[in-house]
């Protein structure tokens, strides 16, 4: 059975009964990105109008008897409401939804269905992923690039359908209903229970979805695509620059690594090195650097040996042929 929030997405408060309440913890991200674990309770109600996160739609906020609900998650056919105050099983409670947050989600979710359908109808662009955010929603289309003209055409068609005030209807079909085959959707979650929910924008699109939706496109007020063609270009350029910088740094690192390996006291001529980012060029640079350093060493060794030989010669007892020089040398010293 669907939750009240799915059967009537415009309901803002209702009365229900607490089924269970058990101790639980909630991991949250405090401001500044620091993780925080809160102690509290998972409360299950007979029914709920607080939407549990799912289908790309964030969960609702609200209250149960004026106690704040900090998170709503779905567990099979039921919803877990996280609170920091316990609630007695069997008691009747008043549930209220944070309407501003919810209505925003409804607008964005229905808007996503509409844009996804229009992008597919006009240009065959399939939606691969989407996400509803606090400030903006993102719809990812399966194409390496979308032109500004395509974006403008999608935007124009979407806004026309909003002005046409097309109704949005939600139906529930049993799993064996032949109608299920005719609706699009990105698959059902593994723990899906009960009938299939189908959201239809009249004359435009039918889609399997668990989210909350507006009942008429006129509630969307309007749709504006950001100038994302430029944004994508900027992103691509930044990525290219980062890749170039990364490559340069990796090259420098390879030279440095080779030198420090070669000058290590433990150097034995064989080395094993693993670096996740190291590509074949990284390895080649190291091999070449070690090689050229070995050449330099060989040259230095040859020079050293040559020097030693000359020094040895100088201190050797004077041979017959050198006697004259020796004498001259002594003579000078003596004089
Ligand atoms: Zn949906």
Main attributes of the structure:
single chain, 335 residues, Threonyl-tRNA Synthetase, Chain A, domain 2, seven-stranded antiparallel β-sheet, three-stranded antiparallel β-sheet, 12 strands, elongated, disordered C terminus, binds zinc ion, Alanyl-tRNA_Editing_Enzymes
Structure description:
This protein is of the alpha+beta class and 335 residues long. The protein has helices at residues 4-7, 99-123, 148-163, 228-262, 280-315, 323-334, and strands at residues 13-29, 35-45, 62-64, 67-69, 71-75, 78-83, 92-97, 127-131, 138-141, 168-173, 196-201, 205-208. It contains six helices and twelve strands. It has a seven-stranded antiparallel β-sheet, with no helix packed on it. It has a three-stranded antiparallel β-sheet with strand order 10-11-12, covered by helices on one side. It has a two-stranded antiparallel sheet with strand order 8-9. Helix 4 (228-262) runs parallel beside helix 5. Residues 318-335 have low confidence and may be disordered. Zinc ion binds at residues 55, 109, 113, 209, 211.
Q: Care to give the gist of this entry?
A:
This protein is an alpha+beta fold and 335 residues long. 38% of the residues lie in helices and 23% in strands.
Number of strands: 12
Q: CATH superfamily assignment of the largest domain?
A: Threonyl-trna Synthetase, Chain A, domain 2
What is the count of helical runs? Answer: 6
CATH topology of the largest domain: Threonyl-tRNA Synthetase, Chain A, domain 2
What portion of residues belong to β-strands?
15-25%
Tell me the quaternary state. Answer: single chain
Structural class: alpha+beta
Uncertain spans: 318-335
InterPro entries: Ala-tRNA-synth_IIc_core (IPR018165), Alanyl-tRNA_Editing_Enzymes (IPR051335), Thr/Ala-tRNA-synth_IIc_edit (IPR018163), Transl_B-barrel_sf (IPR009000), tRNA_SAD (IPR012947)
Domain Alanyl-transfer RNA synthetases family profile: 1-220
Subcellular location: Cytoplasm
Main location: cytoplasm
């Amino acid at each position: 059975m669907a939750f009240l929030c799915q059967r009537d997405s415009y309901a803002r408060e209702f009365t229900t009964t607490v089924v269970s309440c058990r101790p639980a913890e909630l991991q949250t991200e405090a401001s500044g990105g620091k993780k925080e674990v809160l102690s509290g309770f998972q409360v299950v109600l007979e029914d709920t109008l607080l939407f549990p996160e799912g289908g790309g739609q964030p969960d609702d906020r609200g209250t149960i008897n004026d106690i704040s609900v900090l998170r709503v998650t779905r567990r099979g056919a039921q919803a877990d409401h996280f609170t920091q105050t316990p609630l007695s099983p069997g008691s009747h409670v008043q549930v209220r939804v944070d309407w501003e947050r919810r209505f925003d989600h409804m607008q964005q979710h229905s808007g996503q269905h509409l844009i996804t359908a229009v992008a597919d109808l006009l240009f065959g662009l399939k939606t691969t992923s989407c996400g509803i955010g606090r400030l903006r929603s993102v719809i990812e289309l399966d194409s390496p690039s979308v032109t500004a003209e395509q974006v403008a055409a999608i935007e124009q068609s979407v806004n026309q359908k909003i002005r046409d005030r097309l109704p949005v209807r939600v139906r529930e079909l049993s799993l064996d209903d032949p109608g299920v085959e005719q609706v699009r959707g990105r698959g059902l979650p593994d723990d899906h229970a009960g009938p299939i929910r189908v959201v239809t924008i009249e004359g435009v699109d039918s889609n399997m979805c668990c989210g909350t939706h507006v009942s008429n496109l006129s509630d969307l007020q309007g749709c504006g695509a950001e100038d994302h063609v430029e944004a994508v270009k900027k992103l691509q350029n930044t990525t290219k620059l980062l890749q170039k910088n990364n490559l340069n740094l990796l090259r420098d690192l390879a030279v440095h690594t080779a030198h420090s390996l070669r000058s290590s006291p433990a150097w034995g001529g064989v080395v094993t090195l693993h670096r996740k980012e190291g590509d074949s060029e990284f390895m080649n640079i190291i091999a070449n650097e070690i090689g050229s350093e070995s050449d330099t060493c060989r040259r230095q060794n040859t020079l050293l040996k040559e020097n030693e030989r000359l020094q040895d010669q100088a201190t050797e007892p004077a041979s017959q042929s050198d006697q004259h020089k020796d004498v001259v040398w002594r003579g000078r010293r003596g004089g």
